[in-house]
Design goal:
69% helix; 149 residues; two-stranded antiparallel ribbon
């Protein structure tokens, strides 16, 4: 498997990462009403695992290319990636309108993870898939334990 991967910068992967991070940057600078996300986390070990996996999968997603992957195109996986991004933005709009119920928390948690996972699968970047999947599980645990339970 390793022989099919090469170092290659993927600008689309970086754009996806930036598109997911834009609402986080806005949230950091401009607090939302009913801003429950600013509460301290009770899942610090899970958060640390998620942080490490996030760095690993973003680096692998942006810097490694599977030579067997097709050129980027409008595939069902890419369309689903963009749909996840739109659902994620809807979650942020609801959050900034004062909604912090379990559904909104799940909209801020699950769609961005699925967007990354679907993009990684489309690009056949199996090296990025494992840390991305671990990140998704940790991110879900973080959201559920800290803001839903």
């Amino acid at each position: 498997m390793r022989k099919y991967f090469r170092f290659h910068f993927d600008a689309w992967a970086l754009l996806l990462f930036a598109m997911v991070m834009i609402p986080n940057v806005i949230w950091f600078a401009v607090p939302a009403p009913n801003d429950v996300l600013r509460n301290d986390s009770v899942t610090t070990v899970v958060d640390n695992i998620a942080s490490v996996c996030q760095v690993l999968f973003i680096a692998a997603m942006c810097l490694l290319q599977n030579e067997k992957a097709h050129k980027i195109r409008w595939s069902p996986l890419i369309v689903a990636t963009l749909a996840c991004l739109i659902v994620y933005y809807i979650g942020w709009v609801l959050y900034y309108h004062g909604h912090a119920d379990p559904l909104v928390i799940l909209l801020l948690t699950i769609p961005p993870c699925f967007a990354f996972l679907l993009y990684i699968i489309d690009r056949k970047n199996w090296i990025a898939l494992v840390p991305a999947a671990i990140f998704a599980i940790c991110h879900l645990i973080f959201g559920v334990v800290n803001y839903i339970c």
